[in-house]
Amino acid sequence: RLSFCLLLSACSWGWAPGGAAKPKGQGYPHMNSIRIDGDITLGGLFPVHGRGAEGKACGELKKEKGIHRLEAMLFALDRINNDPDLLPNITLGARILDTCSRDTHALEQSLTFVQALIEKDSTEVRCVSGGPPIITKPERVVGVIGASGSSVSIMVANILRLFK
């Protein structure tokens, strides 16, 4: 039930052919992403779209290798979170990103997972009112599922390993 609703919202969030998405809400400017709140957050990198043509990052939807894998993760999270014996009093959340079947795009997306670990220097930043900015830290991702290809997984693992 949850995974079906999330898939529907994923389609309305911009996972559409051509990748013509708009940023989703303040503090979450990443296109082609799903965020589920939880006590522990898992990352997901899936090739929901194929490679884009003519300078576009993303192309057509990939049903079998993209959407099906995304659905499998959502289904697993749903089953785990709804079983009171598996992880009592703990819910799993997720931050799932689209690699668009490109290794460079997957690498760029994987940096989203380490943003919570990077200190932001806000000493020189001031709001229009003169007060200090309120910087919302992204959730900390404890592990990443994906990517689909070995070469992409190795590159992503090498980047994520730097941040433990």
TrEMBL record:
One of its GO terms (cellular component) is membrane. Residues 1-20 form the signal peptide. The keyword Transmembrane applies. It is found in: Membrane. It is a multi-pass membrane protein. Residues 69-164 form the Receptor ligand binding region domain. Gene3D superfamilies: 3.40.50.2300. Keywords: Glycoprotein, Membrane, Receptor, Signal, Transmembrane, Transmembrane helix. The keyword Disulfide bond does not apply. GO terms for molecular function: G protein-coupled receptor activity. It comes from the Eukaryota. This is GRM4 protein. It comes from Scytalopus superciliaris.
